[in-house]
Amino acid sequence: PVVDLAAELAVEPLEVEVGRGRRAGGADRAELGLPHREIRTLRRAALLHDIGKLGVSNRILDKPSALDPLEMEAMRQHTRHTFDILRHVSRFRQFAAMAAAHHERLDGSGYHLGLRGDELDTSARILAVADCTEAMCADRPYRSGLGLDEALRRLDSLVAVGHLCPAATEALKGWFRGLPKAATEPAASGDGAVRAA
User: Of 63, 89, 103, 197, whose Cβ has the fewest other Cβ atoms within 10 Å?
Assistant: First the structure.
């Protein structure tokens, strides 16, 4: 689930290309039990999950250092903006809430609604894991991206403290383990992205 999704999901569209989910096979899908229709909806939500960043100042998005508390609060509004944008487009309305939930956490510590546990469906949990992976691996103006192995170790830490879904995290890790080694190494471009042929 996470990665038939993560590859095309939060990962590929967000510039951390980890192969083509369609080639990843159905094992991950079966593991989390998502029907094909929900997978298709999840892919669409993943493609648009950060569209709300259009409502965040470029000064904040491109800042070359860590964000201060006010800037961080403005950045956190992108999930609300995502929901507002998608719910006004009839073809996207069905996944507006799912796309906007990518920063929610199982323990309720996420944003923008502070959803927790059973309030987060499987798709939202998958999207959260995929987005975390992408965020850790991607270069930012103020830091270089992590290598995939380190990012996966950090995912385990986030599971241990109750932020991320263990099943979704294990599915993502299993998918990455199934890729050829060269597909999970940082690209030669130096941009921190993980690329697959």
Answer: 197
Q: Is residue 137 part of a domain?
A: yes
30 occurs within a structural domain: yes
- Is 173 catalytic? The answer is no
What's the total number of domains in the chain? 1
CA separation for the pair 4, 171 (Å, rounded): 10
pLDDT in tens, 71-118: 999 999 999 999 999 999 999 999 999 999 999 999 999 999 999 999
Taking each helix axis from N to C end, the angle separating 78-87 and 69-76, rounded to the nearest 10 degrees, works out to: 20
Cα torsion 143, 18, 185, 105 to 10°: value is 50
Query: One of 53, 63, 173, 181 is an active-site residue; which one?
Result: 53
Q: Is the dihedral of CA 85, 91, 96, 99 positive or negative?
A: negative
- At a CB cut-off of 8 Å and minimum separation 6, what does 166 contact? 159
In a domain, 188, yes or no: no
Residues 164 and 109: their CA atoms lie apart, in Å, by 11
Residue linked to tokens 């100042």: 57
Q: What is the CATH number of the domain that holds 26?
A: 1.10.3210.10
Does 192 map to a domain?
Answer: no
Give the single-character DSSP code of 178.
Answer: T
